[in-house]
Design a protein that fits this description.
This protein is mainly alpha-helical and 181 residues long. The protein has eight helices and no strands. Helix 1 packs antiparallel against helix 5 and helix 2 crosses helix 3. The longest helix has 31 residues. It is globular, with a radius of gyration of 23 Å. The protein starts with 10 loop residues before the first helix and ends in a 7-residue tail after the last helix.
Length: 181
């Protein structure tokens, strides 16, 4: 076995398979005028055709749901996992959707980490990980990371909204006042 040989089942290959199973590719391809059969072949690891970056982006954008503001980023996530990276979607402008309260965001983080804990206990008990469990763990972990990034962004935004007041309170609190010390 060569040291340069790539593993047979890569994160991207698994992401392509999961994406194909989750969506009707001919409908997604039609949104951007792509050849549906060719896209199906490019998402199939047993075929020789390879997915182009532009096609990956178009297929991902085709999964956008305006009602929820979400899209299936599984292909991009699988590609990034090949590079030992992860990504978190940036928040859209607050004018387009109702902001989530900090307590609701914390509840979502707690829910995601609770599910991750349950999966971890199950994996430890059975000493096995099947594809479905792996995909659920990755999806919930990405959700938890996304929610944590959003929480950080919102807290930072709240601080930036009144920086002069925050700095003044910090300065006032650290100043010695004559007659009161």
């Amino acid at each position: 076995m060569s040291a340069n040989e790539c593993p047979k089942h890569t994160a991207f290959t698994n992401a392509c398979s999961a994406f194909s199973n989750a969506h009707t590719i001919k409908h997604l391809a039609a949104k951007f005028g792509l050849d549906a059969q060719m896209q199906c072949n490019k998402l199939d690891a047993s075929k020789t055709h390879k997915l182009f970056v532009e096609e990956l982006l178009l297929l991902t954008k085709a999964t956008y749901n305006p009602a929820t503001g979400n899209m299936d980023t599984g292909l991009v996530d699988g590609l990034l996992r090949e590079l030992n990276l992860t990504a978190v979607p940036l928040p859209e402008s607050t004018a387009n959707h109702k902001p989530t309260s900090l307590s609701d965001r914390m509840l979502e983080i707690s829910s995601a980490t609770g599910e991750l804990s349950a999966h971890t206990l199950q994996i430890n008990a059975t000493n096995r990980v099947n594809r479905t469990t792996k995909e659920q763990v990755v999806k919930r972990a990405q959700c938890a990371v996304r929610e944590l990034v959003m929480l950080m962004s919102e807290v930072e935004g709240k601080f930036q909204a009144v920086p002069v007041l925050s700095c003044a309170i910090d300065a006032f609190g650290s100043m010695p006042l004559s007659g009161l010390s």
